[in-house]
Hints:
Arc Repressor Mutant, subunit A, DNA polymerase, domain 1, globular, Elongation Factor Tu (Ef-tu), domain 3
Amino acid sequence: MFAEYDVVVVGAGHAGCEAAAAAANMGMKVMLVTMNMGTIAQMSCNPAMGGVAKGQLVREIDALGGYSGIVTDKTMIQFRMLNRSKGPAMWSPRAQSDRMRFAETWRLHLEQTPNVDFWQEMITGLMVKDGRVKGVRTQLGLEIPAKTVVLTNGTFLNGLIHIGEKQFGGGRTGERAAVGLTAQLEGLGFESGRMKTGTPPRVDGRTIRWEVMEEQPGDEVPGKFSYMDTPRLTKQRHCYITYTHPRTHDLLREGFDRSPMFNGRIQGLGPRYCPSIEDKIDRFADRDRHQLFLEPEGWDTVEVYVNGFSSSLPEDVQLRALRSVPGMEEVKMFRPGYAVEYDFFPPTQLKLTLETQLVKNLFFAGQINGTTGYEEAASQGLMAGINAARLVQEEDPIILKRDEAYIGVLIDDLVNKGTKEPYRMFTSRAEYRTLLRQDNADLRLTSLGYAIGLASEERYQRMQAKQTAVETLQAGIDQISVSPEEMNSYLESIGSSPLKQKVKAISVLTRPNATLTGMMAHSEALRQLGEGHVEEHLDQAEIQVKYAGYIRKEKDLAEKMMRLDEIRIPEQFDFHAITALSAEGREKLSRMRPASLGQASRISGVTPADVSVLMVYMGR
């Protein structure tokens, strides 16, 4: 029934969608298989994209030629740049999305992408021969032959939903679990584990007293995610902040004896940085309130997401507790919160390409690797799709380094360190975060996306125009001088000491609180330099000038570390034969088979002494 596909993608969540789009746009014949065509790219949890470090991931996906940024821009209802009070390395874009339109727009983009076919059915097994995947088998017994397969099963592998004392199979409320794959993968030698995630109740916005809550508007001048010419918001919907009450905590505690978290029914570890409300009041018993962030689900719907109130308590306990929150005294619940347990496969079983070590041509992406979050999943899906396509094309894989992208940090962490709890990206995980800012993802990655046939010609030309403009501005700022007569009134307004003589403009711009646009208003030469340049170019030039010293230091450090990555380790190297290595080092190195000394140095349990020993054996 099916001809052979270059890439079969199993699962149509954020990872699966990006994997299918990337491989197809690189010329592959792609089959996207999902259990439900009506839930392609569904936002299973909160209706938002981006956030701290996550916004950087979305911009990187866009810079490489992925779809997440474009879809977000087309369907957002609010935009905020987080961490504006900190340096540019910490700025993180976040958007509230229209949940229904987000999924619809993603599906339409995929349907309009040549080379993508769809099939609605559960995949129950893989076709594997001589250690190489050959395709997938469906619940109906159909076989779909494939050169490569990307598994993006999300929370569906043996998924189990918990609400109070009730539990039932499912990967998402109202949708059944996927069975069969875990047992086969374990039979092939893969190690598996269990994780847990949860979601809050959704409530009826018509029954909320918004006027007693704190309004959280979007930015006055909203930004966007994509570097392409996507629409900008002209109106926005507000979010709202309220807080739990001591009475809320008392009501929640009354249900603890029926909580699957506290009575041992849930075995999987949940995300540390997104705990359930019952976990919060148990762990932080001294706090008399916790913030709740109420997010509208779209432009027109009245459904509201109660961020901060994730729960698996019985539905009656959830409703009583919600009604004790100021502004929600008469609230009606559309659907209760729940916890879901699911199988995952420790990502130390992968190569840095996201291909599995045990089965050739088989890739894992998303929550199957132990991550949490749409953005983390989409990033892995994009890279799995790229590398599956490159494998079919018999081209070298694409592996982003830690100094090139947050995506590189994400995958390097997963493969080399593994994770025992749902992994979430933070700026603190990136040691080169001054290099990896959200504003320069296109300058870092679009040339690569274009070279591999993913980023379009138009995207590449836009990036080149930006690069030329920024270089011109930087050179001009370095050459122009400003006088006390021009600048002192401006410097006084920003609380900076006055000039006593003419100085280079660059020396003024590097002062705290000084901005390029502020200086342009007082210097004719700077004003002429900035004519014809868009705000994005001016901002980029300012950041490059102000943070030049920090950027240079991080580049120097990255170059030093890169030297270790250039020292290759032979594929069949016998680590057990080197008795000078620590016992744990021998075990970890033999199991994970690092390709370079740099990768070996980042494996948890491999000591600096082990790396020194390896350097001797590599002739260094």
